[in-house]
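Standup notes, structure subgroup. Blocker cleared on the flavin-adenine dinucleotide input:
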Amino acid sequence: MRIERYMKASSIADAFAILQERPDNKIIAGGAWLKLTDPVINTAIDLSLLGLNSISEQDNEIEIGAMTTLYTLEKSAIIQKMYDGILAQAAMKIMGITIRNIATIGGCIMGKFGFSDIITPLMAMDAILVFHQHQRMTLEAFLDSKANFQDVLIKIVIPKTEARGYFHKIALTSLDFAVLNIAVSRKNSEYRIVFGSRPGVASRAFAAEQYLKELKNVSEDIINKAVDMAASECRFGTNQRGSAEYRLNLAKVYAKRGIEAVTDYEN
Ligand SMILES: Cc1cc2nc3c(=O)[nH]c(=O)nc-3n(C[C@H](O)[C@H](O)[C@H](O)COP(=O)(O)OP(=O)(O)OC[C@H]3O[C@@H](n4cnc5c(N)ncnc54)[C@H](O)[C@@H]3O)c2cc1C
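Run returned:
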């Protein structure tokens, strides 16, 4: 990475305006990932003076500033309480504390990384992104968007709710990227089943979620059917960390554990 000019934005509008000036102007958050890439950045726009690094509890939602680090997420009592703490658990599984003290939630989202351990639980929590220009949009809509997003992510909003959650990351070593990660959540009769690092970016098993929603009680047979639906609905691929077949098998085992955990089902 080579940076020609570095500026600390004095407002979000200021950051946005400079971002629009040239396609090679870039927001720099933790810079942990950007540093590993090889772009020439004309103007690196630093958001660190804008107070976007905290988590706050509002009446109906939790707001997480885009510059909040993974270590802050992991240690936040608010985040540890929500959905049985799946977002805090996911953050905790990423590298060591030194990286977690640098990498931000905004960088995790804006990179649209296939390997992301953060996008998976956020999708299971129905996260909403708040941008300067695009304003509010769901995380899924953002991930689906093909357009090059020259916008400033300000915060991530999670609706406050009583909900259960399960997260698991399978990796070859504790410091490695995931072979697969999974988040399952339940809010009353609404389920989310999300697979990430497939190795593509996280995706939801909509048909399996709907199937579970329509049933009053779960049983072993119902869980097995939902697991088969979820596993066949999501596409798994092969890379140096694992084959598509291995990922499919992992998906079935951990989707079952996830559904059992969020329904308190014991067989
Ligand atoms: C060695 C290493 C190992 C890692 N291992 C894992 C892992 O196992 N699992 C995992 O999930 N992640 C892993 N990561 C990724 C890490 O969790 C972060 O996702 C990554 O570092 C990006 O966050 P950042 O704050 O460093 O963003 P940066 O590198 O600063 O930025 C990343 C991208 O996001 C854009 N951006 C950042 N913030 C904003 C904003 N507010 N508005 C608009 N655009 C923005 C930047 O312009 C850039 O394009 C790893 C990273 C490193 C360096």
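Discussed briefly. The radius of gyration is 19 Å.
Next: hand off to the docking folks.
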